Amino acid sequence: MISMDSALTAANVYIKPAHSRFKAENRSWQGIPSLARTDNGRLFVAFYSGMKTEESGNFVILVQSDDGGQTWKDVVVAIEHPDPQMRVFDPQVWLDPLGRIWLIWAQSRTMFDGRDGVWAIVSENADADTPSWSLPKRIANGIMMNKPTVLSNGEWLFPAAVWTSKYHKPTESHPEVAHEVLSNVYVSCDYGNSFTWRGGADVENRAFDEHMVVEKLDNTLWMLVRAKYGIGQSFSQDAGRTWSKGEPSGIMGPNSRFFIRRLSSGRLLLVYHDSEDNSRKNLTAKLSDDDGKTWSAPLLLDERNNVSYPDGVQDENGRIYIVYDRERYVDREILMAVFTEEDIIAGKCVSSDARLKVLVSVATGPKSR
Q1: What are the domain boundaries of the chain?
Q2: Minimal CA–CA distance to 164: which of 154, 178, 151?
Q3: For the segment 226-254, what is each residue's pLDDT rounded down to a tens digit?
Q4: How do the residues of the chain divide into helix, strand and coil, expressed in percent and rounded to 5?
Q5: pLDDT tens string 337-348
Q6: With left for phi above 0 and alpha for psi between -120 and 50, is residue 114 left, alpha or beta?
Q7: 171 — phi, psi (to 5°)?
């Protein structure tokens, strides 16, 4: 029986699902990917699909590669809610400091229900032939599609946001979360066993938030937020409890998700659209040696139109893996780039195993539009 408030009930988790609706040959569109790598080198990529577009009935799927992305196993996990009015969307996959893989997603009744919710399952044996997963657990209100940040004090910050838009009016539908209509951070101090809302930033003209947090060298938290004009920013001096007034970061580009992460070298990596005409093209990687004050010359990862939503990791050898989507409803590709800091500094691929535009997945079902 479906709950009257099914948004608060767990979706179904299918391991190696047999049902054909999840298969690439029946997926009509796909996008919004995330990537993680286990300590032993297995790559996982999560994204979502289902139905004709981003709407009720969406589901999340997970694919994997055991050869560095040369080949991929399609649909090793699928997550779908039994209530057809529910959507499962905007996944994130993350390797935590304990070596566990988290598969995180958002749930909403209809497109947005004003409260939404961040859910997760965790695998402690992600390199097994058939990894086992924990039961789904709701960890926050809102939507989280970017990676957590582990602070120098050991706390884990999860960047979840309660969105507000013409579709999504939480103060009307769920007034209990009205104080969270921000780019929030939820914090775990016990290795992911529990989470509490700590605070949030209010960046004017933000769009779907999609925020990420890095800890600067002086322990200031720097939050970057998707905005209509490019990327906005806010700062916290107290581990995320309070945030400065939002403002433009000076990093321009289209209204789209970006990716920022501190690398093992200490540099910051930024992947975003280096585009002057507000289009989702010229997906580009840059480095900063001065904690984000200035950025290097670019390494162009993909010059084509409608490439978007980068996410990635760095391995122990310094290789950077970035996954993104291309033409969600037309070519319907999930792609990957593999490169190093050396390649970015050179402005071209000079490392021996650098690869661009690597195909991870393509949907081949009847196109939805």
Answers
A1: 11-362
A2: 178
A3: 999 999 999 999 999 999 999 999 999 99
A4: 5, 45, 50
A5: 999 999 999 999
A6: left
A7: -65, -20
